[in-house]
Amino acid sequence: MTDVTHDPARTSWVASANGHSEFPIQNLPLGIFSPVGGGPRGGIAIGDAIFDISAALDAGLFTGPAREAAELAAGRTLNAFMEAGPAARQALRRAASDLLTAGSRGEAHAARILHDASSCTLHLPNRVGNFTDFFAGIHHVITAGQMTRPDNPVLPNYRYVPVAYHSRASSVRVSGEPLRRPNGQRVLPDQATPDYGPCRALDYEIELGVWVGPGNPVGEPIPISQASHHIAGFCLLNDWSARDIQRWESQPLGPFLGKSFSTFVSPWIVTTEALIPFRSPQPARPAGDPAPLPYLLDAGDQARGGLDIDFEVWIHTARMRADGTPAHRLSSVNAAVLYWTVAQMVAHHTSNGCNLIPGDLFGTGTLSGPDVRTEGCLLEMSRGGSRPIELGNGEVRRYLEDGDDIIFRAHCHRPGQVSIGFGECRGRIGPAVTM
C-alpha cells in the first residue's frame, strides 16, 4: 500500500525537511496560507518552508492529472480538492514529492515556489459546512461517567452506537487565534438557582480531527467497506469545553453553549495517504463486549482501521512565559484508545441517509488512556476539579486560567519509516467579555 512517496531513503533539496520532526518529504500535508503581501492560497508544508501550489502551476511544473489536482488545491479553500477524492490526492502527492526530491527540477524554481513558513499566515484549510463531534474514546467515557454515574459509567448504547452530536461549524477556528473565556449560566454546588457570568471551569479536550473528502447524496448511506474513500485527512482538534455551563445545560438535550463558543484545529491536513505506513489493526474489544452490528463491521477496516498516532498536551502559563520556564507536559496518549474506527464513524453518520459534504469536520471525541497522565482533559485529570494538578514550576491547576497556553502535538513513529507530525494546535485563554 505504500509507494515511492513513503520511501525512507527519499530526501529533499529543501534542507530543513531532512530529519524534520513534523514535515519531512514523506508527509506533505496540505493547508491554506498567505505569504507576505499575498492572499490566501493552497500550500504544502515541507520542513520549515511552504510549497506554493499556485506558483508551481504558474511555473508549469505540474502536468496531466497532477495539474488538474493542483488547480483544485490552489484556491482560497481546499473544499474542491477534498471533493475530488483519492485519485486527485495521490496525483498531487506524487508530483509534489517528485518536485521536492533532492536533485529534481523543482530546485531551480526554489525562489519562486517556496516561502519561509515563519513569515506566512496560516488559515482554516476548509470552509466547514458541518462539524460532528463523536465520543469514541472509551476511557474518557468511563472516567467521566464515573463522576456522575459511578454504578453505571458506560450507558448500554455506547458499545453499539458511535455516539456523537452535531456541534457548531461557524466557531471552528485555526490554531493560534485568540480565545475569549465564555460567559454563561452556571450553578455552584451550594446554589439552588443559576447565575450568569464567566466560565469558572474552562477545559480543553484533545481529539483527532477528521476531514471529509467526497460526500454522499441525501438518502444514500456510505457502506463501511467504502467509508475510507470518503476520508481525506486528519488534524489536531481542541474541543474547548466550559464544564460548569455544560453541566447545567446538558440535560436533557446535551451540549450547547458549553461547547459551541469555539473549536480549534491545527492548520495542516495530514492526508490519508501520508498515514498509510502508520495504519494498525483496530484493538480487540474487551471480553464480553458485543461485536459491532454488521453495517459497522468490515474485515479490512478491523485489520487496518486503527491509527498509530502519539498525542501530547502541554501547558505554558503566563508565569512560565514571564519566568522563561518551558512548557509543562500534562499528558500523552495513543490513538489506540479509540473504541470506534473513523470508517465506522462515517458509516454510522450516513446510515440514516444523512449526507456528508466535502470539507465537513469530525472530532473523534476525547483521547484518554486508563492511566494517570494519559487523560485527555482537565475534567479527568482533576476529577471534576476536586484533585489539584501541580505543574512543573509549582503552580496548581484544576481548570484553565486566563493567560494559559494549551498546546497539542502529535507524531507517528514506526520502525523502518520516517516519522511524521501534525504541527501544533495551540490557543491562549483571554478574559471573558464584560457584559
Cα radius of gyration in angstroms = 22 Å
Tell me, what's the shape? globular
Number of domains: 2
The CATH architecture of the largest domain would be: Alpha-Beta Complex
| CATH fold group of the largest domain | Fumarylacetoacetate hydrolase, domain 2
Major sheet = 8 strands, mixed
- From the helix content, strand content and strand pairing, which structural class follows? alpha+beta
**CATH class of the largest domain, please?**
Alpha Beta
Distance between the termini: 56 Å
Present the secondary structure layout.
Blueprint: E1 30-34, E2 41-46, E3 49-52, H1 53-58, H2 64-73, H3 79-84, H4 86-100, H5 110-113, E4 114-116, E5 121-123, E6 131-134, H6 138-148, E7 164-167, E8 172-174, E9 179-180, E10 183-186, E11 195-198, E12 202-203, E13 206-212, E14 231-238, E15 241-242, H7 243-249, H8 257-260, E16 263-265, E17 270-271, E18 279-280, H9 299-304, E19 306-307, E20 310-316, H10 318-323, E21 328-334, H11 342-350, E22 361-363, H12 378-381, E23 389-390, E24 396-397, E25 405-412, E26 420-430
Parallel strand pairs: 6-22, 8-16, 9-26
Antiparallel strand pairs: 1-2, 1-5, 2-3, 3-4, 6-7, 10-11, 12-15, 13-14, 13-22, 14-16, 14-17, 18-19, 20-21, 20-25, 23-24, 25-26
Question: Can you describe this structure?
Answer:
This protein has helices at 53-58, 64-73, 79-84, 86-100, 110-113, 138-148, 243-249, 257-260, 299-304, 318-323, 342-350, 378-381; strands at 30-34, 41-46, 49-52, 114-116, 121-123, 131-134, 164-167, 172-174, 179-180, 183-186, 195-198, 202-203, 206-212, 231-238, 241-242, 263-265, 270-271, 279-280, 306-307, 310-316, 328-334, 361-363, 389-390, 396-397, 405-412, 420-430. It is an alpha+beta fold and 435 residues long. The chain has two domains: 4-123, SH3 type barrels (Roll), CATH 2.30.30.230; 131-430, Fumarylacetoacetate hydrolase, domain 2. Strands 6, 7, 8, 13, 14, 16, 17 and 22 form an eight-stranded mixed β-sheet that branches. Strands 4-3-2-1-5 form a five-stranded antiparallel β-sheet. Helix 2 (64-73) packs across helix 4 (86-100).
